[in-house]
C-alpha cells in the first residue's frame, strides 16, 4: 500500500456538516524501520471537542505526548527477510525524525523492545505479526485479529513471507513506569 485516501468531515462556520478533506496520502517510509510504511491519518494532543472543523493538526510527535492525546495510524511491516538496513545510520535517524517525529522516543533496545504511555487499539488488516512481550512469550496475530496493548513492553516482527498491515489507534494515558526501573523512558 503506497497511498491511501483520507476523507475528513467537519462543521463549517454556519454549523453545517461538510466534507473538509478528500485527499490521497503517500506512505512515509522511515529509513531506520527497514522498509515499514506509515500513514499518519489523524491525531491531536488535546481533548477533542465536537463538532469541530476537521482540521488536521501539523507537527505532532508520532506517539501522543499527553494523556489527552490520540493518533490514528496504519503501519505496514515488510517480511523480516526484506528488512533493509541503512548504510548511514546517523543520516537515517535524521530522516526518520523528519518523516515521523518522535518515532524513536519509545525504542529502548536494539531488538525493538519498547513501550509507550498509551493504550493501543490494534487490528491486523493483512498478513501476520509476531508480538513478543518482555517476559519472552510471543503470540502470532493474523488478519482479523485485534489487540489491546496496555502499556506492556513489547516488540513486533513479521516472520511471514508477505507484508503485514496494522490499523492503530494510540490513546494517550498516564503510566506508572516505576516497574521498568532503569528501562523507563523519559516522555
Structure description:
There is one protein chain. By secondary structure, this protein is mainly beta. Helices cover 6% and strands 39% of the residues. It has one domain (26-175): Jelly Rolls (Sandwich). It is built from one helix and ten strands; from the N terminus they run ββββαββββββ. The longest helix has 11 residues, at 89-99.
Notable traits:
Jelly Rolls; 187 residues; mainly beta; five-stranded antiparallel beta sheet; 6% helix; three-stranded antiparallel beta sheet; 1 helix
Question: What is the compact description of this entry?
Answer:
By secondary structure, the protein is mainly beta.
Q: What amount of the residues lies in strands?
A: 35-45%
Q: How far do the termini sit from each other?
A: 31 Å
Enter the CATH topology name.
Answer: Jelly Rolls
Task: Look at the structure and give the mean pLDDT.
Answer: 90
Q: Major sheet: size, sense and barrel closure?
A: 5 strands, antiparallel
Helix segment count?
1
CATH superfamily: Jelly Rolls
From the alpha-carbon coordinates, what is the Rg to the nearest angstrom?
A: 17 Å
What's the helix and strand layout?
Blueprint: E1 3-11, E2 17-26, E3 37-44, E4 70-77, H1 89-99, E5 118-126, E6 128-133, E7 138-142, E8 146-150, E9 154-157, E10 164-172
